[in-house]
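Researcher: Batch entry, complex prediction.
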Amino acid sequence: MSRLPDEHGPLVPLPMRGQAAQVATVIIQPTHGWASLQLGAVWEYRELLFFLVWRDIKVRYKQTALGIAWIILQPLLSTAIFTVIFGMLLGAPSQGAPYALFALAALVPWQYFSGSLTRVGTSLVNSAHLITKVYFPRLIIPLSGVISTLLDFAIGFVILVLMLVVYRVPPSFNMLWLPGFLLLAILTALGFGLWLAALNVRYRDVNYLIPFLLQIGMYITPVVYGSTLIPERYRFLLALNPMTGVVEGFRWSLLGGLSPAFTAPGPLFGVSVCITGVVLVGGLLFFRATERTFADII
Amino acid sequence: MSDIAVRVENLGKMYCIGRAQQRHDTLRDAIAAGLGSLRPGSTSHEETIWALKDVSFEVRRGEVLGVIGRNGAGKSTLLKILSRITEPTTGRAEIHGRVGSLLEVGTGFHPELTGRENIYLNGAILGMRRTEIARGFDEIVAFAEIDKFLDTPVKHYSSGMYVRLAFAVAAHLDPEILLVDEVLAVGDARFQERCLGKMGQVAQAGRTVLFVSHNLASIQTLCPRVILLQGGCASDDGGADQVIANYLGQMHSKSLQPLAVRGDRGGSGEARIVSASVASRDSGQAALRTGCPVSFRFEADRSRPGMSIQFTIYNAYGRAVANFNSALRGSEDITLELVTSHFECHLDELNLAPGSYRVNVALLADRIMLDHVEAALMFEVSPGVVRGRPINSPLGGGDAILPHRWEVPR
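Model: Structure tokens for the complex:
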């Protein structure tokens, strides 16, 4: 049965919010222009973030008959379909690795990205009832989106590891870089998601736009093919899409032992990181600047 | 350290109606509007409305302040600004102390989660620490009287249980400043009483409370001081009895103005109610008495296909007593298919206790509100007789006298 996390063990007592002996004072007045990011306020509300993530995860599979099996089926079915269509029928090159493994190593981070982006992009609109009734730093909502999707990622990753064992892929130290690639995927999803979420409050077109963008994204990211398929001089174009760096990074860390065709992240990876940085910081600023009108127009 | 808990200075909030109407707008509209404003001759002035204007007041620590006013007077906007949900356009507010705001009961409740899970979730949303919730948990469950259903998803709860649980969580929020918006308008009478009791306790414990409500009776019981908002401005501020009396007096004088010229109305304005009256149909008896046959008459300035009228009778304390809707028709009603601008509603007996009442009227067509006037009509009911029973004074409870008959059980 459902049990709350704090029933498992003692909790570290938390200090009272922003006050001890002296009274907290809040000044309410109109703000103009670019607001500060107020990341401190987000930290103060970390418990709410925790509960929203916990609610998301609980609710998501509560009414589905297969429950957690859906998270397992999603990457497996996609891998099977891609293996048949691209690997077998079209004979897409897989750089010396079994195509199924080649595809799954990219699909797990890609599906995390696509799930997160969808969740974050629609998060504000789906939480309209909270936004119009309670105050909290609005950034909590998109953050809970990228965090709760990590559960799906973790399950997908376990399947991926099982596949690696089945195919007897030798592990390598490259794997130590995986958390970095995952972080890049999280920040990329958050960065683009913040833009979409804030725009969605004003323009509901974004709801229709997201699946469309993701479909395009899937093909401009080397998920079903490898970036070696693209002539060397055009590869920088692929790097403009930060998910290229993530996907290629995942393949290199996991399958690098199979073939030297999986190359370590080079300067092009730096381009991916920079683009994510720009999108994320821009997204945060845009989100904060439009946040003050959310409750009025949502 | 001052003893002021809330200080509000020239607070104002402007809404663009133009923007509000295109809130589900699409990029195409935005582009079209952008092009439109480039066209010569088209002015792009957005219609704006000040939901709140130049409101200033102070609330001392431990004071319980009531805020009253008609719909759209700015009460909710004020609470939303003080709760930091929306930003003011002008002015500023200072709040000294931890704020708990209850703009609705059960914010963030999830139907799939159990009562236990929702207590934690809702508590966190209202700003409680996990440790605080854990400490108050048993008390919350006891107050809500749901201990048997603690591990049942709340979607299986009755609406009463749902509201009780939601209020119980909120009531155990322990802020220094509590902002409450009419949440007591839910639940059964016994529960409402307990909620009011809880609110009274909160007030007595030295907490500062800002209480917004339509229910003048509960405002009068709970709040020694009351602010009246009208058209976004604080038009009266003082002792509860005096402010409420003035407010009711104003409503009365408003209703004496000819309806056709009153400007304080809502709706699209495509048609307007120009007259509203009630008259006794008792021959030779002009006064409205309890139990006498009466007719309500309404007239609109034009007719529209499918137009219907709705009116609600409120008692002196702002509690709704009865609602009448010309769109709900039975075999006794004249079919109003023909387009008409006159409406007449007959009551064979006026089953209302003696006292004063007011009537809000709305004109609708295709579920669009054409016109809406609050206190379009005020009337006094004098003591009278219902089916042979003399009714002389206000009833022990409620304002309606339902037709009934006493018998000795066989």
